[in-house]
Amino acid sequence: MLKLDERLQGDSYCRHFEQGPDSGTMIINMGPQHPSTHGVLRIICELEGEYIRRAEPVLGYIHRMHEKMGETKSWWQFLPNMGRTDYLHAMGWGHTYVLAVERLAEIEVPERAEYLRVIATELNRISSHLLWWGAYLLDLGAFTPIMYAFADREIILDLLQEPTGSRLTYCYHRFGGVKADVSEAFVQGVRDFIRYERERFPMYRDLVTENIILRKRVEGIGIIDKDMCRRYGATGPVCRGSGIDYDCRRDEPYSIYDRFDFRIPVEHGCDAMARYLVRMEEMEQSMRIIEQALDQLPGADGKHISKKAPKPNFKAPAGECYAATEGARGKIGIYVASDGSKTPYRIKLRAPGYCNLSLFAELATGTMLADAVSILGSLDLVIPEIDR
Q1: Does residue 197 lie within any of the structural domains?
Q2: Residue-number span of the structural domain to which 291 is assigned
Q3: In this structure, is residue 198 part of a structural domain?
């Protein structure tokens, strides 16, 4: 094969991506501006024909130094950063951060606020899964489903706009509660949405899940066994699609999730189809949780926020704490350390997408390039969360 001068062989990453001993292979880039990478993710692949011999994700194109910002802002000022970390499940990140600080400062949360947190977080989980569903199918060549998904998701955004004042990068959680209570119209709107969505799911199953074209693109593709999940720390629908029955809401209980009757969907296929089925069932289980929370909400004690909730000049006591919750993409973990001042001494974020993406290089080896798109979509990556 013709060998150009090194100075002409792409950028620094490509030049330092070590090519295998076979001179017949080709190095190509997927991204950072590629429809199937959903953001600015770049993957360098060494191809042998249509098969991937090696793949290497390259990050850093949207890094915003969230953790470093946490060392320069006050405890309060860092709250909006959580909505910018994972813009599709901002509620999950907000819940995790306030949980870590509340444990550190021993802040009590009213019972009503806990219910409001659960309702908002589960609604946001459904909207995240709906967007994944539509975008994944768009990646695989089906255009119609994303129009249905966006129509349903818009209803959730309309609902959450009332208590939060925003439609995407939510900052609803506060230390000791939430920003605002919900109205009767919101409660009725959520009940109406659940009834509406349950009527839509059979159509989605007939249109997409049972579609032979989809099944040919996802069944037997991207096999992730339990051992690979454990080696890379995969969580969420990725590990539950590999037969690992683990969910923070049940296995590391927090908030009031232990009061609800819901099932943790687990599939044993280990392929992209198994991960698809887990997320579809998770939407139904989130609706079950929301229904129970709405039923129990009128009898909950307290208001939407504690009377003793910290003010903006709040100083967390010296010490350290860690909290974990179940996000739409897996286990969200936040470690906070305080020296007793208004500003955190250290904040460390555990993003589930980072671990889930880490296994891609091993997983993609030996697969066809076209299947890499299906595998990436099945991981449900949100790049700002991974880059942070």
Answers
A1: yes
A2: 66-385
A3: yes
Distances (CA, A) of 99 to 64, 259, 299, 381: 23, 18, 23, 24
- What's the CA gap between 33 and 260, in Å, rounded? 42
Q: What is the mean pLDDT of each run of 10 residues along the chain (388 residues)?
A: 65 67 78 72 87 88 88 93 91 96 94 96 96 92 91 95 92 94 95 95 90 91 93 94 94 93 94 95 96 94 89 91 95 95 94 92 90 90 86
1 assigned to some structural domain: no
Domain membership flag for residue 21? no
End-to-end CA distance of the chain: 40
Q: CATH code at 171?
A: 1.10.645.10
Q: What is the reported pLDDT for 15?
A: 66
Token digits for 63?
A: 């890094």
- Sign of the four-CA dihedral 127, 129, 134, 138: positive
Q: Determine the Cα–Cα distance for residues 2 and 75; give it in Å rounded to an integer.
A: 57
Q: What is the pLDDT of residue 81?
A: 92
**pLDDT the model gives residue 59:** 85
* Vertex 67: Cα angle to 62 and 71 (nearest 5): 135
What's the rounded Cα separation, in Å, for the pair 214 and 217? Answer: 5
Tokens 């590391």 locate to 252
Using an 8 Å Cβ cutoff, are 255 and 102 in contact? no
Specify the pTM.
0.91
Number of domains in the chain: 1
What are residue 55's DSSP bridge partners? Answer: 45
Structural contact between residues 209 and 233, judged by C-beta atoms closer than 8 angstroms: no
- Report the amino acid identity of residue 322: Y
User: Which residues lie below 8 Å from residue 217, measured CB to CB, with a gap of 6+?
Assistant: 140, 272, 374
Task: Provide φ and ψ at 18, rounded to 5°.
Answer: -65, 120
